[in-house]
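Consider the following input, taken from an annotated entry for Nuclear transport factor 2 family protein (Streptantibioticus ferralitis).
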Amino acid sequence: MFASDEKHALATAFHTGLVTADWELIRSLLTDDVIWTLPGDNRISGRVAGADAVVEHVRLIAGYGVNFEFQRVLVSRDNLALSLHNTAERDGVVLDEYLATVCFLRDGKISAIETYLSDVDGMNAFFV
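Applying the prediction step yields:
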């Protein structure tokens, strides 16, 4: 079980990796068998398995010019969530969504991620 400050540090490191495009940092936070599930029906939706695949998926999302605005870290007894406000604009299509990226922890790393969104239809329109 992680202490609350350790969960905050892990969440902060994940966000730092996102905004600085530090893919090695993100990779270091993941178990080899990590799974990430995203809602919707678009290019980034579905389930991604394996640390290298998750890192490539993060790179794909960042490649759309998304601004990952940090809101707060939420912690449970065993896990954590990042509350984010993601925005971007591409070819006249605007992304403006709030999300919770819930991270399930094992052995000091992120073993599963599930993303919850405020605007799945907006995500579908943006990530074509």
